[in-house]
Amino acid sequence: MSLLEVRDLKTYFFTQRGVVRAVDGVNLSLNEREALGVAGESGSGKSTLAFSIIRLVPPPGKIVGGKILFQGRDILELDEETFRREIRWKNISMIFQGAMNSLNPMYTIGDQLAEIFIIHKNYDKKEALEEAKKLLEVVGIDPNRVRSYPHELSGGMKQRVMIAMALALRPKVLIADEPTTALDVVVQAQIMNLLKRIKLEYGTSVILITHDLSLIAEIADRVAIMYAGKVVEQGLSEQVYENPAHPYTKALLGSIPRLHGELKELTFIPGAPPDLSNPPSGCRFHPRCPYAFELCKSEEPPIVEIEGGHFVSCWLYAKR
Amino acid sequence: MMQDSVSEARDLLVVKDLRVWFPLRRSITDLIYRRPRLFVKAVDGVTFSVKEGEIFALAGESGCGKTTLGKTIIGLHKPTSGSILYRPSSKLSNLPEGMGAGANDGFVNIVALPDAVLRSLRKEIQMVWQDPYGSLNPRRTILELLMEPLEIHQIGQTFSERYELVSKILEIVKLTPPEEFINRYPHMLSGGQRQRVVIARALITQPRLVIADEPVSMLDVSIRAEILQLLLSLKARFNLTYIFITHDLALARYISNRIAIMYLGKIVELGRVHDVLSEPLHPYTRALIEAIPEPDPKRRLVLREIPIKGEVPSPINVPSGCRFHPRCPYAFELCKSEEPPMLEVSPEHYVACWLYAKR
């Protein structure tokens, strides 16, 4: 049984302009000690997916359908208080996008880390600060920095503090939403090293959400590619990177400039991602797809397993 | 993709020992104690040249001074010292005596030009900005946005003549049919389309040198290649020269002929893009290349060895000697006290590092 399973999840935003179907029928699973990469462009619904799993979808967003099973239990059924006490942060925690700006500038990082232990574990201030120091050490920051304020830290260090917070209660699942945007490559590599160590040493399952397929390749055992609120392809990293099936995945992989190997012409996808308040009929990728035919315009493609554990949602692979 | 045929071409732009320092405000206590004025040394002694018809990449991390350098070349910042020599076309005839193409081997020094002359020069040196969402005035239509450079540079006599030029440039950047876009506002366009407008606005004055500052970094991955292809085809069509500012070394590999790696306001390595990226010399370049992730799951979970420590220091208190020495794994005594010179290690491959100096 998988640790976390998302079944037919639907999260819609009820805006004045209409209903935006940010996540529209997503199926995913995450095993213990596994790293899952969720890739997609801006507006593909990948961040909304993350917020749905941790039940922090901002209004006017709402989870309108589907199930999220954590260890077999549907966490969408729980009342907010039970979810807050038992699941959020303790079992599923998250590193937010732009996390560096999520720290409170008025408190020292030690206070902010200690707060978690005080609230969740009823530690007194002194014990909690000791724990905070240990945590800082884990993420590679000098423990004496507990007295520092966020503005005294560099961007990379602030991100490490955010990771320390997410790790504080030793969660089973760590969701990292674009954890390295706005960081330079050298710092980015250090943060990725840290995430890898967390996965290997603590056995934490990681969901890495990013638009950057190169980053996902650094850590993910399995990859899910999202487009316009749906998962279009899912499989083991080797399967998806070496043998991409969906036309979108193929084009996406072909569009990444590479530092090594031969210089191949970069591919691009004409057009722009669709407006999710009025998504295209049938397969949502069909207006940009070079292989689209009649059926693609009218009917949504089924999910097809093309090899063991490698799923694709495309009419090209469906038996008719 | 790019060939080396430009290596024989003549220089279009020569930047010599350029410094751009921004003074910090002094507080009242600083004034009372007569503390010296501090500067952000954004660009601190940069020398390079760009040949006619080449794509020259300026690469580095955020805060290395690459954007400031680009802005200084088009005259948006006044340099603290140094010179920027540009070879204007013969069309530019209204240059004052002693500054025209006749003097100085055909070059003019942009730094020394009076503002009025600089403005006419801008027709030839244009910039493509990074952020297609922020660089177009949301209250103007595409027509108004593209008319403005024509009015400023007095290109075209009548409205209909200018209208014609605008629809022509829209066709060139493939916003077709132009009538469909000409009366729209920026918010009615996608990110990629907006960036095409930004490119059109730069090209409408028929420049010779285009400075492209991260022209695709704000766009979605799937449409980046399309904009890059557009930039490359425009270069071929109009014989342009590009200075391509980017943080993405892999991208630079695909489009540029030569590359300069900047660190904390200085160029640390310069050469043909293939040489620099396949045989990096400077410890900083090596670390950058080592840190770049590749879309290949084979190296999954292998911890990357990043040979350098810490983060980029503040450009206010630049380290003594080689400014990279506090982070460099090979630093020795000399690096701490003296700034390394630019050394030609192999033909056209330069590095500023004491490791390669003969002593």
Report what the structure shows.
The complex is a heterodimer of chains A (320) and B (359). With 320 residues, chain A is α/β, with parallel strands linked by helices. Chain A has a domain at 4-84 and 172-183 and 204-317: Rossmann fold (3-Layer(aba) Sandwich). Chain A has helices spanning 46-53, 80-87, 109-121, 125-138, 155-167, 185-202, 213-219, 237-242, 247-254, 294-298; strands at 4-15, 18-30, 35-39, 61-70, 73-74, 92-95, 173-177, 205-210, 222-227, 230-236, 303-307, 310-313. In chain A, the strands form two sheets. Chain A has an eight-stranded mixed beta sheet with strand order 6-7-8-3-9-10-12-11, with helices on both faces. The radius of gyration of chain A is 20 Å and the shape is globular. Chain B is of the alpha/beta class and 359 residues long. The longest helix of chain B is centred in the middle third of the chain and has 18 residues, at 221-238. Residues 1-5 of chain B have low confidence and may be disordered.
Question: What keywords describe this structure?
Answer:
A: 320 residues, alpha/beta, Rossmann fold, four-stranded antiparallel beta sheet, 10 helices, globular, B: alpha/beta, 12 helices
